[in-house]
Amino acid sequence: MPAAKKLIVRIVSGDSRTCPLCDESLEGFEESCNHLLQVHKLKYLHIGQETEDANRGLQNTVGIFGRV
Ligand SMILES: [Zn+2]
Question: How much distance in Å is there from the Cα of 57 to the middle of ligand 1?
Answer without folding.
Answer: 31
